[in-house]
Every structure is written in structure tokens, then in C-alpha cells.
Design a protein that fits this description.
Elements lengths: L1 H27 L6 H11 L9 H26 L1
Helix pairs in contact: 1-3
């Protein structure tokens, strides 16, 4: 459990500054975005819209950490079989 919290802390330390530092880019990209920009915005801004509250950045980081950790966990399980 402690190891999981350490992994989350490392993920959050990278994710939260990434969101804060790239917020101005969202406005400058405009409405015509390519696939990479759409994927990046989806990763940063969903599933919770943090324009209402900055606390939702933390909720997004928890969601994405859980998603990525689950994917990595199941890939490791499949490789061990």
C-alpha cells in the first residue's frame, strides 16, 4: 500500500505541474486541433472539468493514475502467465 502511494505521489508531482504549465496552450491552440493535441487535451482535461474548481486537477490525477496503474497491473499479470 505504501508503494502504491509513493507511485501516486510521483505521478501527481509530474501531472499537476504539467496541467498548470500548459493551461495557456489550451487557449492558443484554437478550435482546429490535430489528433495529438486532442489526445493531450483529453488526458489533461478529462474526465473532470477543472475550470469549475482547481481541486478537480487532483481528482483527474487520481483517475489517470488509477487507470494507468490498472493497465500496467493487468499487463504484468498477463506476462506472468
Amino acid at each position: 500500500m505504501i508503494r502504491l502511494l509513493k507511485y501516486y505521489a510521483v505521478f501527481a508531482v509530474g501531472y499537476i505541474p504539467l496541467v498548470i504549465l500548459t493551461m495557456p496552450l489550451f487557449i492558443s491552440w484554437g478550435s482546429k486541433r490535430n489528433f495529438v493535441e486532442k489526445a493531450y487535451l483529453y488526458f489533461i482535461g478529462s474526465p473532470f472539468d477543472y475550470s469549475k474548481s482547481l481541486w478537480l486537477i487532483l481528482a483527474n490525477s487520481i483517475f489517470w493514475f488509477t487507470t494507468f496503474y490498472g493497465i500496467i497491473f493487468f499487463i504484468r499479470k498477463l506476462k506472468r502467465k
